[in-house]
Amino acid sequence: MLGELPPIVELPANVAGALRPVPLFVHTAGLYEGASAPKHHLRSDGNAAGTGDMGSDAAAGGAPAMPRRVNAAPPQLSDGQGEIRAAAAPQSETRGVSGRLQSSFALTGHSMEALTEQDVDVLLKVLETRYEKYLSAKQQTTERYLTRIETDVDRFLAAHYGEGAAAPSSRFGGGVASFIKNTLVPQIPSPQRVRGGGGTSPSAEKAVSDDNTRCCDSRTDGLPTLQASSYRANAIPFNYLDVRPMNMETIAGNLVVLRHCLAECFAPENTVQKSLLGPIVRGVWDQSLRSLQKSARELLEVAQQNVWPPLEYIFLRQRRGDAAVGRERRAKYDRIVAALQDDLKYLHTIHEMDREVIEGQIQARQAAEEGLSDYVPVSGLVLSRLHRLENEHRTVLEFWKTR
């Protein structure tokens, strides 16, 4: 018995590694866990990168480091997709939201589960700030092109119908009178027809026809003919209702010119169409409205691609007690997006209307049958300026006619 020796047992080279408990599941967070790295140091495979003392010990001696016991609650690691779950949200609820918003991850470029409600509030605040800047630019652009339209109309009248302009017969040939007689009534609607949306009585149409025909024929109402008329800007004094203007002949000549321009607006291949409507419409769109349209489109894309996915994710993840806050956030977003969509629809609509006017695809009779509209194209603003000037000059003459 004494001569027998016990069997020789070969000890493992790494005793600590051999005695370490083997986890049942690969992604289970147990009591024995390596030193947890910050969240942004986690690799996409779910394992922590070697940092801290473990990495230094391994580099120095080549021996594996001992695992360190973690007393705190185990961190919730990501699944195989490398996503960090939110600790505050229940695991089952978070998994359901992640499945519904899988497409949103591609939009943001990172996991949205790290988002907080404060992040969404910051996004909404930035969106509101940019929208306020857009509204300010929109107002400035509108004021600028409205002023430009009035200035360009006045410049056109002075250049083509001023005292130094060429004779009307050389500008329009010999067909001015026949054109006004044959096309003025069926094409140019009276204000009553536009407001009512329907046609006028035959007697009213005859009166309008007779009144405009006398623009070029011999007049019996005291107005000069078109050949004898010229346009002078700012002919109406500010106190014309209190004191009779001394330049009634100039006002009468301006009225004849304005009525002639209104009659010429929708005639194909005429001076008003080529030198007034076309240049103004193209200039306003190229220098003002296209940039405004681009700004609205870009801001709408930012809202839909960068703000909506996080907002929807937080809204679906919220508990019932926070539903009111979520609805308030979505109301802010919906208000901005709806306003931008309305602006883009408006700009697209008036662009098509201007294109039809410039290309001669729309007639004044068609515009009269449509009645009043919420959409006012640039060409409509040009005609509105002419109508307003015509109404001012006609009011002065009618007011002092019997006084």
UniProtKB/TrEMBL annotation:
Superkingdom of this protein's organism: Eukaryota
Residue ranges with Polar residues bias: 91-100
Renumbered residue ranges of the record's region Disordered: 37-100, 190-215
Annotated Low complexity bias: 48-67
Protein name, UniProt field: Uncharacterized protein
